[in-house]
Design a protein that fits this description.
By secondary structure, this protein is an alpha+beta fold. Helices cover 21% and strands 19% of the residues. The strands form four sheets. Strands 2, 4, 5, 8, 9, 10 and 13 form a seven-stranded antiparallel beta sheet that branches.
Length: 416
């Protein structure tokens, strides 16, 4: 190559060859474990030693949770207005330290304005230590839909008076009222579909021996959500409630009934959307007093329809555990993993035992060299063979003679 061409190296096209480095050429050092029954067995035993006590502890903690559940969405279909009737067993479940003697009962109350209430009558067979929580459970309600989750305006929830055109587009189609043109407060699908069944703030004692047990909604919402909500700066004449709030605000907003979402615990709990279609949301609680044994009732105003999406509504009275609400499946999963580890540990142990016995019975396991005679060992004349035995297969070392070239000769070129 001419020297002047080498000087134009900068004009040559760039090569796509990676740099000759350990990273680019994939020569970095790597560690690949060599798994075998001998080194896997201790790992499995450690997993068993850890997962068995954890699983048993979680399972015992979950089984110590005492709870009562009554599905009440069918109260209008099965309950009567004249007297209490027994709740079908498929709609109830209870787990207490002592057995209940009375089956839960219900009664329907029909108001003149088509408002229905359901009175649940139940027994607490033993004293239940605090904390006491009241939840409502919904099924088949998909709060995790992407369009639904994003349907709110954060600045509006923080109190800013935002015009209808400036609201978040995800609030559509509930940004403004089509008839009056006023801003919907709060806007969006999440607020419009808020759960609006009402619960009495106490468990009412039914007989003379049972006193009322007070409950409160303070602290039911997450403390981390409170900074998101502030009193609104809207004038009451400039806003209207969401369409599904018409029963709550039949005459719209005025200067006295605009909701203060900063202190409205039920609203904040609902705005924390659930990840699954079946979920629990806390509505009442008592974290300081023990619930005495006795005969109680709870009145629930039924305003939230579930027939349109084939859902259910359930009243849940429960205590708590170290890991939260009652959940036996976490402990079961730990025990299943421990059981699988035990099974594989036993399998590997038998493999090690049988392999060791086979090694003692067969001497071929003591050497890695096969007892084979190399082909052509005694065919070459002049071969020197030395045989050495070390208590195992015979190893043969061969010294081949120097090869002698007998082919045609070629003229050589003299180098000047």
């Amino acid at each position: 190559m001419p020297m002047w061409w080498k000087g134009l190296g900068w004009m040559r096209p760039a090569t796509r060859r990676p740099l000759n480095t350990a990273f680019r050429q994939q020569r970095l050092r790597a560690w690949q474990p060599n798994l075998s029954p001998q080194n896997t067995l201790p790992t499995l035993l450690v997993l068993v030693a850890l997962f068995v006590p954890i699983g048993i502890g979680l399972l015992v903690s979950a089984l110590n949770v005492q709870d009562l559940t009554i599905r009440y969405d069918q109260c209008a279909s099965f309950a009567t207005q004249d007297a209490y009737s027994t709740v079908p067993s498929r709609f109830t479940s209870a787990h207490f330290k002592e057995n209940t003697l009375l089956q839960p009962r219900w009664r329907l109350i029909q108001e003149n304005d088509d408002t229905q209430s359901c009175i649940l009558d139940f027994e607490i067979p033993n004293d239940v230590k605090s904390p006491i929580y009241i939840y409502y459970k919904l099924t088949n309600f998909y709060q995790n839909h992407r369009v639904y989750i994003e349907s709110y305006d954060l600045d509006q929830l923080k109190g800013s008076a935002i015009s209808a055109d400036s609201l978040d587009k995800h609030c559509d189609p509930l940004r403004k009222d089509n008839q009056t043109g006023k801003v919907i407060y709060p806007c969006g699908l999440v607020a419009n579909s808020m759960f609006n069944d009402t619960f009495d703030p106490w468990l009412k004692g039914v007989d003379g021996n049972t006193a009322d047990f007070p409950l409160t909604n303070n602290g039911t919402a997450w403390s981390t959500d409170r900074h998101r909500y502030h009193p609104t700066q809207y004038n009451a004449s400039d806003i209207v409630p969401p369409p599904n709030w018409a029963k709550m605000f039949p005459h719209g907003y005025n200067e006295t009934n605009v909701p203060d979402i900063q202190t409205w615990q039920e609203f904040q709990v609902w705005m924390r959307t659930a990840a699954l279609p079946t979920f629990y949301k806390r509505v009442l609680q008592n974290e300081s007093a023990t619930l005495p044994r006795g005969h109680y009732s709870m009145t629930i105003g039924m305003n939230f329809p579930v027939e349109s999406f084939n859902g259910t509504k359930t009243f849940v009275l429960t205590t708590n555990s170290i890991m939260g609400a009652k959940n036996i499946w976490l402990g079961v999963v730990y025990l299943i993993i421990a059981a699988v580890s035990i099974a594989f540990a036993i399998l590997f142990l038998f493999s090690i035992i049988f392999q060791s016995q086979a090694a003692l019975e067969n001497h071929e396991y003591l050497s890695n060299v096969k007892d084979e005679t190399p082909p052509g060992l005694y065919e070459n004349e002049g071969a020197m063979t030395s045989v050495m035995s070390y208590g195992g297969p015979v190893r043969e070392h061969i010294q081949e003679p120097e090869p002698i070239y007998t082919g045609p000769s070629f003229p050589t070129r003299e180098i000047l």
